Amino acid sequence: MKNQSLVTEFLLVGLLDFPRLQMALFLLLLVIYAMSLLANIALIFAVKVNIRLHTPMYFFLLNLSALEICYISVTVPTMLSNFVERRRTISLTGCMTQIFFLHFLGCTECFLLAAMALDRFLAICHPLRYTALMDGRRCILMASASWATGCVDSTIHTVITAQLPFCGPNELKHFFCDMPPLLKLACTDTYKNDLVVRVAGGLVGLGTGLFILISYGHIIIVILSMKSSLGQRTAFSTCASHLLVVTLFYGTGIFTYLQPTTSSSLYHESTVSLCYSILTPLLNPLIYSLRNREVHGALRGAMSRHLKF
Question: What single string gives the DSSP state of each residue in the chain?
Fold first, then answer.
């Protein structure tokens, strides 16, 4: 070990897989990044300017949009910079920084989605007590707890990963620094690290996922018991967007972090993780806004007022 030089930077091999498509990939990433920022900022703006949207559901949606802006900003600017500067490396410090924020934001999103499921459960299953149970103070506490828990979880992951020795090779088979491919490069046994990743993933991901499933189990029972078909459609429409976002987020997350890590699966993992880290921040605000007339009305009203000036 003493005769081996420690790795100080990693080569992102995933960016070299398509050398003839470098310019096309750069433009595609730039467009997706710009559209994602615009969509999430527009959703935040719509919620802030319309007092009718100052409800618990939209408060959590505002947090989710802010999170998505941070999420896509962790990876895409570095990738765009690498395309422009024609380099494919990232420093060890930069790699640890990406891992910290990816896990921080990913864990936080799990709890925010669970809080949104709780909000829908109370609104549909206990409508008479909803206002009292989901007041502003409780909403702020739940959102703050989500961000704080994500920070603690990510700090644990980053600290134990930063203590691993990396002696070479330094080719990271991914588009950015992520835990599964990085652990493959450590020149020591990573059993404990793999165990922490899977246990934390089980406690956070599966725990919040199970909570969401149970919440929607009760919601479906209540919706099916409604005598009015219009009431059933209205109740389900308030949950459809959230269910779609949950399916997209948990489906890709489980595929990436909870399946056994093998060399043959790393390519598929990097492709899936690229989708959820880049496409999900774009799709989430579109899913919520396209199905929501209140958001449409808020955006049109805000735009018309500003155009008058």
Answer: -TTSPPP-EEEEGGGGS-GGGHHHHHHHHHHHHHHHHHHHHHHHHHHHH-GGG-SHHHHHHHHHHHHHHHHHHHHHHHHHHHHHHT--EEEHHHHHHHHHHHHHHHHHHHHHHHHHHHHHHHHHH-TTTHHHHT-HHHHHHHHHHHHHHHHHHHHHHHHHHHTS---S--EE-SSS--HHHHHTT-SS--HHHHHHHHHHHIIIIIHHHHHHHHHHHHHHHHHHH-S-HHHHHHHHHHHHHHHHHHHHHHHHHHHHHSSPP-GGGHHHHHHHHHIIIIIHHHHHHHHHHHT-HHHHHHHHHHHHHHHH-
